[in-house]
Amino acid sequence: MKRRVFVMLIILLFATACGKEKTEEEKIAEAIKSVIQTENSKKEANTTEDKLFEINNFITNDIWNKGFVDVQWYITNGTSSTGGELDIDFTMERLDKAVAKKNEYDVYFESLSDEKYTSIKQVWDKLSGEIDRLHEQLKNRPPVANDKDADFQLGKFKQYREAFDDEVDNLRKQ
């Protein structure tokens, strides 16, 4: 893309230096400008989808992998999800920060007004609410290793996360 723009700019400079009449070169230069503007418009149009992809990665990595999965393994087995030692206080601190960042994404979703985002916003509302519910549950009853009485269920979270992932993929394909 950079090389194509560079070549187009050289043609544009050449065309503007060769006189005042619209030559073939100037016509080509105008066409090139149009292509560049179209490319820039496409980049701007993808901004929302790129942000949704970023949010999806954040949910998968920070909330799911480094948060709820490790906490659930700790409660069930006394280890991290990979079987290693786990500093549960540190994990909870990181989860607290991730949930605070998720709250910023809540505001972002409220700002999406285009109808094509209606479905993903509905899924986000469920996913975000479930994250808040699970986080609050952990705050009210801090995780304890090998706690057979704990009731930390991730089924709905998984369902909503997978639906969110599908929605992001569908929007990126459009």
What would you note in describing this structure?
The chain has two domains: 44 residues; 127 residues, Four Helix Bundle (Hemerythrin (Met), subunit A), CATH 1.20.120. It has 174 residues and is mostly helical. The chain contains six helices and no strands. Helix 3 packs antiparallel against helix 6, helix 4 packs antiparallel against helix 5 and helix 5 runs antiparallel to helix 6.
Can you give me a brief rundown of this structure?
By secondary structure, the protein is an all-alpha fold. Helix content is 77%, strand content 0%.
Instruction: Work out the count of structural domains.
Output: 2
How many DSSP helices?
6
Content-based structural category:
mainly alpha
Compute the gyration radius: what is it? 25 Å
Question: Quick one: overall form?
Answer: elongated
SSE ordering: HHHHHH
Number of strands: 0
Q: What is the CATH architecture term of the largest domain?
A: Up-down Bundle
Helix content: over 70%
> Mean of the pLDDT scores?
87
CATH class membership of the largest domain: Mainly Alpha
What portion of residues belong to β-strands?
under 5%
Largest sheet: none
